[in-house]
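Section 5.1 Outputs to date
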Amino acid sequence: MYESTGKVPKRGKAETAFFESLEILTGVYGFTITGIEDKPYPLNILYAHHQVEKQLTASGQDIEVSIVKDNGAVKLMTCCQYATGTTLYYIPVLPLYKLIKERKHRHTAALLLSVCCYLYRNVCVPFYRDDYCFIYYNYECMEGWFDEDMEGYADRHTDITFKELRQAKHYGDIMHRKIYNPYHLADFQRRIAAYTPNTAMEYECLSVAKRTFALMQDYPERSIFKNTRNQEFEEGEDSIAAEQYISFVARTDGALYDQIAQMVNDEFNECGEMQIPTLTQLFDAENTPDPQGLDFEYRLFPLINDLCSILNNLP
């Protein structure tokens, strides 16, 4: 209110627009603001803003609330973000393929297939065998290097890498077909109900499956990228797209992955910005704010982390 114009806006118009905006915001988030009736202008507005900040902080989401001027009117605007940090959300699928082949773990494997099917089909997590995928390009680069100069890679380490590359392609195509099958979603609820865990790992699988199914019920068609593609960066500044750090991959260990990870990190080191889930909302009669904010992202990313932990530690 002060920084943009150097003076306080006229009381009548500012108060009317602000408290209309405040009423919409508190209605969306379901709380009330009290103790401002006896405050003089503009202290009443600043005190209301302070109360809103405290209430939104208690929500558990990283929400910043600002007083803004929009078409001459004073309103409230929120900006919510989910900090992904420097984590690579790479979900390995070859450990799941191995689990599928073990008869004693077939029910666990089916449960995890349902989880992965939802992430791929509904949430739109890229799969490394899709040719539009960022990680697909990195695997192809590795294969291209081998094809160009196979004789130059005559040592045990590169033999292992080339073998892992062949496995990543062959078994990746098999897992691609399995994860794409919508039957895993249709049978998801029955699999959860019929599953009887016995080990700590199986209890973790059931927990992840239940959380995933609940997320699917609440957000059946929400893409993981819905709130990452609306950010603006400085012109000429290279940025890391969300599609680059979220993906299904073959494995997250071994010689091949070490080289893939190095290629990815080298490219990321050249970038100055990063797309992260961000939702900006203006509270007025012309907009329809989402009361859930980034609830989807705050539930999804920890779930992916837990799924990766399970897959990386399968027996």
